[in-house]
Each structure stands twice: as structure tokens, then as C-alpha cells.
């Protein structure tokens, strides 16, 4: 297994990047782009409806529910192409995801705002694994209590970012807009525990 780059390892959590975790990631990118049921969704913030600035798809064990920002997702099962990835997570990282929120960023205008993956159904200190497919994008962290404390990195094609421990309690993350960016898919694997 490839040696990771450790970006954070302290009381606030653990963040590791495996820059070339998935070889031949272009083929898996094309598989996801062409075979998943991508949806444009709307959320309500402060009483107003807003189109989510990316396409989404929820995958996971049949019937698995996940909710955030007033949206509820129900999985209908894993596509066949995901079985080897799930086995690899278990064997290499002792992590058994049962769901994945898939995000399709069609251009640099598609984005993800500041947030933490801290929904109650993820448990106390969840592990989140982000597999990046397609174009490289910048990924930012900032501390909840002190927004001047930041980490910035670039997620290359085929990379795997692992966040675990207390990260979601102490840090937020975001994918900012970019003037020029190739299309990108992020597979955010997680384990629903409640």
C-alpha cells in the first residue's frame, strides 16, 4: 500500500492523503459519470430555495437512509463497479463504508460550501474517505473556532483523502469555485451507524 501524506495528526483529528490510491482512475470516472443516476437537487436555506451547485447521487446498502440540509436520501444498493473498492477499504484501512454521497462537479463553477460531516447518523468520530476522480481541485480546511487556522491541499485524480478521529468536530471543509477546472467526481464514503 502506498505511503500517505499526513496533513493533520493531533487531538483535533487525523487527515491523510494517498495521492495515487486508484490507478486507472479515468476508467472509473467514466463508469460513474455514465452509469449513476445523477440528480440536481434543491435545498432550503433561511426560507429560500437554492439549487445545489453540483449533481448528486446517494449509493449504499439497500434501504440505507442519509440526510443533510433537509434532504433525505435512500440507497437502492451498490452498483457492481463498487465491490472491489469496498473490499479494498476494508482490507487496507479497516473501514467498512455502507454509503457514499457522490458529487459531480461539472465545471469550476460547481462547488461545495463550508461544512462538517457531523450528522448524528455518522456517529461520534466518523471516518470519511473521499476518492477523487477526474480533474484535480483545491480542497480547504478551517478550524470551527478559529477560521484563521487553515489547511489547503490539491486533490489529484485517483487520490484518496481519509478524515478520521475528531476532525468533523474541530474542522470544516470546502471545495471552492475555480475559474478553470476539469469536471470532477468525488466519492465520499461513510458509515451510517444510527
UniProtKB/TrEMBL annotation:
<feature type="binding site">
    <location>
        <position position="115"/>
    </location>
    <ligand>
        <name>2-oxoglutarate</name>
    </ligand>
</feature>
<protein>
    <recommendedName>
        <fullName>Fe2OG dioxygenase domain-containing protein</fullName>
    </recommendedName>
</protein>
<feature type="binding site">
    <location>
        <position position="188"/>
    </location>
    <ligand>
        <name>2-oxoglutarate</name>
    </ligand>
</feature>
<dbReference type="GO" id="GO:0008198">
    <property type="term" value="F:ferrous iron binding"/>
</dbReference>
<feature type="binding site">
    <location>
        <begin position="46"/>
        <end position="48"/>
    </location>
    <ligand>
        <name>substrate</name>
    </ligand>
</feature>
<dbReference type="InterPro" id="IPR027450">
    <property type="entry name" value="AlkB-like"/>
</dbReference>
<feature type="binding site">
    <location>
        <begin position="66"/>
        <end position="68"/>
    </location>
    <ligand>
        <name>substrate</name>
    </ligand>
</feature>
<feature type="binding site">
    <location>
        <position position="103"/>
    </location>
    <ligand>
        <name>2-oxoglutarate</name>
    </ligand>
</feature>
<dbReference type="InterPro" id="IPR037151">
    <property type="entry name" value="AlkB-like_sf"/>
</dbReference>
<dbReference type="GO" id="GO:0006307">
    <property type="term" value="P:DNA alkylation repair"/>
</dbReference>
<dbReference type="InterPro" id="IPR032852">
    <property type="entry name" value="ALKBH2"/>
</dbReference>
<dbReference type="InterPro" id="IPR005123">
    <property type="entry name" value="Oxoglu/Fe-dep_dioxygenase_dom"/>
</dbReference>
<feature type="binding site">
    <location>
        <position position="184"/>
    </location>
    <ligand>
        <name>2-oxoglutarate</name>
    </ligand>
</feature>
<feature type="binding site">
    <location>
        <position position="118"/>
    </location>
    <ligand>
        <name>substrate</name>
    </ligand>
</feature>
<feature type="domain" description="Fe2OG dioxygenase">
    <location>
        <begin position="96"/>
        <end position="193"/>
    </location>
</feature>
<dbReference type="Pfam" id="PF13532">
    <property type="entry name" value="2OG-FeII_Oxy_2"/>
</dbReference>
<dbReference type="GO" id="GO:0035516">
    <property type="term" value="F:broad specificity oxidative DNA demethylase activity"/>
</dbReference>
<dbReference type="GO" id="GO:0051747">
    <property type="term" value="F:cytosine C-5 DNA demethylase activity"/>
</dbReference>
<feature type="binding site">
    <location>
        <position position="173"/>
    </location>
    <ligand>
        <name>2-oxoglutarate</name>
    </ligand>
</feature>
<feature type="binding site">
    <location>
        <position position="190"/>
    </location>
    <ligand>
        <name>2-oxoglutarate</name>
    </ligand>
</feature>
<feature type="binding site">
    <location>
        <position position="105"/>
    </location>
    <ligand>
        <name>2-oxoglutarate</name>
    </ligand>
</feature>
Amino acid at each position: 500500500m502506498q505511503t500517505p501524506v499526513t496533513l493533520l495528526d493531533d487531538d483535533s483529528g487525523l487527515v491523510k492523503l494517498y495521492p495515487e490510491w486508484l490507478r486507472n482512475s479515468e476508467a472509473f470516472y467514466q463508469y460513474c459519470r455514465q452509469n449513476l443516476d445523477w440528480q440536481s437537487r434543491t435545498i432550503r436555506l433561511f426560507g429560500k430555495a437554492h439549487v445545489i451547485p453540483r449533481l448528486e447521487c446517494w449509493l449504499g446498502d439497500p434501504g440505507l437512509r442519509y440526510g443533510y440540509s433537509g434532504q433525505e436520501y435512500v440507497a437502492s444498493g451498490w452498483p457492481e463497479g463498487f465491490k472491489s473498492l469496498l473490499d479494498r477499504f476494508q482490507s487496507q484501512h479497516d473501514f467498512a463504508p455502507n454509503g457514499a454521497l457522490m458529487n459531480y462537479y461539472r465545471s469550476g463553477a460547481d462547488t461545495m460550501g463550508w461544512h462538517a460531516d457531523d450528522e448524528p447518523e455518522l456517529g461520534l468520530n466518523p471516518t470519511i474517505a473521499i476518492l477523487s476522480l477526474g480533474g484535480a481541485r483545491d480542497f480547504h480546511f478551517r478550524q470551527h473556532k478559529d477560521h484563521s487556522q487553515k489547511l489547503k491541499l490539491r486533490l489529484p485524480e485517483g487520490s484518496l483523502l481519509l478524515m478520521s478521529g475528531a476532525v468533523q468536530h474541530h474542522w470544516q471543509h470546502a471545495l471552492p469555485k475555480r475559474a478553470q477546472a476539469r469536471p470532477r467526481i468525488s466519492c465520499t464514503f461513510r458509515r451510517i451507524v444510527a
